[in-house]
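Input set for joint prediction.
Command: fold jointly, output tokens.
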Amino acid sequence: MKLSQGVEWMLHGVGLIAQAPDGVWVSRRVLAEHYRLPEAYLAKHLKSLVRAGVLVATPGPSGGFRLARPAAEITALDVVEAIEGSASPFACQEIRTRVPGAPAAYRRPCAISSMMDRAHQAWRSELRQVTVLDIVQMAPGPIRERTAARLAALAK
Amino acid sequence: MKLSQGVEWMLHGVGLIAQAPDGVWVSRRVLAEHYRLPEAYLAKHLKSLVRAGVLVATPGPSGGFRLARPAAEITALDVVEAIEGSASPFACQEIRTRVPGAPAAYRRPCAISSMMDRAHQAWRSELRQVTVLDIVQMAPGPIRERTAARLAALAK
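tokens >
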């Protein structure tokens, strides 16, 4: 069970975009340089975030990305599921129906499948409690100031 | 993010083994036939469960598997982690240290990494609350009776 590297990249990346001053669109190149990440892989994940309604994109030479809504209204779960999808990591194949004498379809959901689903919902619930604003505010002050200065320079 | 199919197989499989009468060792072949699963793949997962101390194995023609301790003392998490390992699906690469001007090592854990860890612990906690005995008892009565008859026949 593994999450894509893009989850870490984009949780940080969306946090960076959240800190951009009004009117500043953060380009893919700026993001890639900031975290020293491969631009081509970033492109794929940025597209997923636009598709999921977390980011909006503007094309052109001064183009880039900004948040689609305020940072306090985007949860970590929104970012994670934009990259990974929302399916449970447990794909139930209903092997209980293969047991000799078992019904072809049970009336009740399988206890194992329900348990795995509860675990997945507990995981999602933790990620829903943290917003992009929280992530930004949890970074150390000096780091935030340096990032702000860097993003302000882009506005010029 | 995907769990191995072996997780479903072995949650059911350990439940079946838990229902065997005293002195009956459930063979890999019986397990494979019961759920119509490929024996070769089962072998790998059964080995992992023995290694993790969930099952004990006995070799030979009447050999097979039984629980290493009472079903009420084996959690679903024990079974899942025997198959999948206990590592978090989020592998933090500390990309925050790559940011220009960032320290090579931070004093505090990354907020993103801590959040992903809390989510993983919430997932584990759900699976720790369900025992193999619970799984057995949640199966419908008629199915349990048929399984018991089948396992009793093995003892003869």
